[in-house]
Amino acid sequence: MENETKNCQNCKKNFTIETEDFKFYERIKMPSPTFCPECRLARKLTWRNERSLYKRSCDLCKKDIISMYKQGVSFPVYCHECWWGDEWSPLDYGQDCDFNISFFEQFKKLQKTVPRAASYATKNVNSEYCNYTAHMKGSYLMFGSWFSENCGYGQTVLSSKECWDCVFVRDCELCFGSTDCTKCNQVLFSKQCTACIDSTFIYDCRNCQNCLFCYNLRSKNYHIFNKPVSKEEFNKTKQEIFSSRSTLQNAKNKFKKIVQENAIHRFMTGEHNQNVSGEFISNSKNVHKSYYIDNGENEKYAVRGGIGQKDTFDGFGVHAGELCYECNNIDFSSRCFFAINGENNMNSEYLLDCDHVNNSFGNISVRKKEYCILNKQYSREEYAALVEKVKKNMEEMPYLDKKGKIYKYGEFFPFEFSPHAYNETLAQEYIPINEDGAKKLGYSWDSIEEKGYVPTKNWKDLPESIEETDNDILSEIILCEAWDKNKNEAQNHKCTKAFKITQNELNMYRKWNIPLPTKCPNTRYFEMFKERNLIKLWHRACMCEKENHQHGAEKCENEFETSYSPDRTETVYCETCYQQEIY
Asked: How far is CA 92 from the centre of its chain?
């Protein structure tokens, strides 16, 4: 089929379904989507609350727990021991299919009864305040991370040690305030660096040591502003940067300006790729309009993919599987469509919190079963006949949400079914909107009742340097600067109003001579995330005009798709010009 333009049911903007998209939909026997790619992503992410944690009790054993669900949600919430235990069975909640009402209405009813796990944490040790994590040790307020140790306030921190306030780092150690770094050690306040050591405020550097305010460097040592300096000058400048909070803030502003005005920006960050488009893609083939993908093949509209995913469209956090569509946090699965949270699921659709299920449709919290529909098990023959009847019912009797959007077979779960508000979830991070915008589109919104914290210290009264900070700070409740300056804006990113300093955190600040923060962890995280490029591509031309490059005296004519919008000030080069300039 040729390209087709559709109007999105949700945002009412036109979007294009391309020829290769139709081929994929035909392969999995699925109708084409009625939501645009951005709204499809937002719809999935309204189900993924990573950072908003609440104190509540387990509905089975009654012990106090930390959960991503508030007390009072419509379904039971179990601690990990109870949820994985043998005291209950998901099949006890099974429902017969009722063809007099829509399938989604039946699923909504099932959703109100079946227990859910309090959080998603696998084999963590001493890491209670972590969510969507696995194999974490001694970590605090970590999210979307795995195999890391003694880390705090981070997101997507993978196989790393003692990294704090970091976002999207892998195989790093002793890093702070850095984003999109790999194999770095003692790298602070830096971006998109690989194999760098003991450096601060560096951008797009590789194999560098002892560098400050540098960009686009390769294999350099003792450099400041991309110029060589003595060891003594380097140490003196670094010491001055961290001498007070004001000098550190000046350094942050200076670094931001350098990155925007001086650095060369590669149109797409990635390596060892063949026929790809998007951002942060590596070791991949035929991956398009996707972001943060490693070892992917034949993917499109995929975000935060794990390692080794193949033949997948519209996946978020999908790892090591194949032929998945419209899934969120699904690992090691095959022919799995419209699924949220789980692993090792085969030939199944419309799953929520299911593991090791085969040939199943519309189930919640089911494990190691097959031929189940709405948590009721059937014979192989009964299942085959009933699934076809359910799909037909979804076509003939679609679900209409509160805004009149139509949900037939082939649509992801309605976002009004999600137990989370828009601004509780990753939707607000990847596709940020305000309360009015959310409600206009029909998303729920957590207006955040002001917490009853009584701050004992204003952020303005914190010591200017870490040397002036004593252990009494551990007992203080500190008013967040973001809340103090603009409470309404702070609520958009779930500012906690006030925060405390932990002992491990204080030890870390002392180790690196970093002044205490004036903002809560949520605010710090959202400010870091906001500086990363949007999940969106623009068609642009290379900005290179250097005569010593392959295009000679004429301006480079290469064009590409990039996550740098045309109205931004950075200098963006095609791959050829970037390589000629940097290497």
From this structure: 34
Give pLDDT tens digits for 76-131: 999 999 999 999 999 999 999 999 999 999 999 999 999 999 999 999 999 999 99
The H-assigned helical ranges of 351-468 are 380-396, 427-430, 435-441
- Each residue's pLDDT tens digit, 395-438: 999 999 999 999 999 999 999 999 999 999 999 999 999 899 99
Tokens of 424: 């509780």
C-alpha 528/C-alpha 421 separation (Å) is 22
| Contact partners, residue 384, CB within 8 Å, separation at least 6 | none
Q: What is the pairing mode between strands 116-117 and 310-316?
A: unpaired
Q: Phi and psi (nearest 5°) for 548?
A: -80, 0
DSSP letter, residue 130: -
Contacts of 58 (CB under 8 A, 6+ apart): 65, 77, 78, 79, 82, 118
Give the count of beta carbons closer than 10 Å to the beta carbon of residue 284: 26
Going from N- to C-terminal start, the domains of the chain cover 4-48+420-441, 125-266, 270-403, 457-530
Q: Output the pTM of the full model.
A: 0.94
- Residue 67: which residues within 8 A CB-CB, separation 6 or more? 53, 54, 55, 56, 77, 118, 119
Contact 552, 559 (CB under 8 A): no
Residue 285's φ and ψ, nearest 5 degrees, are -140, 130
C-alpha separations of 574 from 6, 294, 483, 562 in Å: 31, 21, 41, 10
- Residue owning tokens 């488009």: 277
Q: From CA 232, how far away is CA 214, in angstroms rounded?
A: 17
Q: Per the structure block, which two tokens stand in for 449? A: 């009742």
Q: Is the model's pLDDT at 520 over the cut of 90?
A: yes
For residue 305, what pLDDT is reported? 84
The pLDDT of 190-210, averaged and rounded, is 98
Ordered DSSP codes for 486-519: -HHHHHHTT--SEE---HHHHHHHHHHTPPPPSS
d(CA 502, CA 164): 12
pLDDT tens for residues 363-385?
Answer: 999 999 999 999 999 999 999 99
